[in-house]
Specification:
By secondary structure, the protein is an alpha/beta fold. It is built from five helices and 13 strands. The longest helix is centred in the first third of the chain and has 16 residues.
Length: 211
């Protein structure tokens, strides 16, 4: 499958100027990245969200997914809920996560009117819950991240939900981390339980192949 706006690891690394490096702890990275996101203006966030939506909706990776797992961005997370409606227009079956205990359950997305506030202030879909194993049906999983590096290491919020969920995905599933340009970096601290990403998608670079 081809990705529109594709780059490869050797195409230059605008995130390499990040003040942290591979010796910084995940806690340090998270604090710095959250602070940087909080300073993004609503106007800049909207511009970046629009660019991300255009790249994703134009991508054959997404168009050919059949079933796609996504999520609802909240606060200054890259992207917006409006993008989810674009996936529906394409005819993709979209599953969104619902936090249940230590696991993510999955619900078919039917529209923004069905979203409710869930755990950790996240927006979650109402509807029949398909179970944590429903992720296996997804050919593509769009994964929230605070940052991702060029080897595919992803830095999440630290709760481990996606590390557990992605282990239940199909062996050939494609994992896409959606981040800002500055959040695609050279190297992040990694642990054995980290599940590598296949692609990053950023507002300024589109799809970047990882690994």
């Amino acid at each position: 499958m081809a990705a529109s706006g594709t780059e490869h690891p050797g195409d230059g690394h605008p995130g390499d100027g990040h003040p942290f490096n591979g010796h910084s702890s995940k806690t340090q990275w998270r604090a710095q990245l959250r602070s940087a996101r909080s300073s993004v203006s609503p106007q800049q966030h909207a511009l970046e969200a629009d660019a991300l939506a255009k790249f994703l909706l134009a991508s054959d990776i997404v168009r050919e997914a059949g079933t796609l797992c996504g999520y609802v961005p909240v606060g200054r997370e890259p992207g917006t809920a409006q993008m989810l409606d674009g996936f529906l227009t394409m005819g993709v079956r979209l599953l969104l996560p619902v936090v249940e205990g230590e696991l993510l359950n999955w619900v078919v997305y039917s529209g923004r009117e069905a979203l409710t506030e869930g755990a950790y202030g996240l927006a979650e879909p109402a509807g029949s819950r398909l179970g944590s194993a429903a992720i296996f049906s997804a050919r593509v999983v769009i994964v929230p991240a605070l940052a991702v590096d060029h080897t595919g290491t992803r830095l999440g919020r630290g709760k481990g939900y996606y590390d557990r969920a992605l282990r239940l995905a199909a062996p050939d599933a494609v994992f896409i981390a959606m981040v800002r340009d500055e959040e695609l970096v050279t190297h992040l601290p990694a642990e054995p339980h980290d599940v590598p990403m296949t692609w990053a998608v950023t507002p300024g670079r589109g799809f970047v192949r990882l690994g």
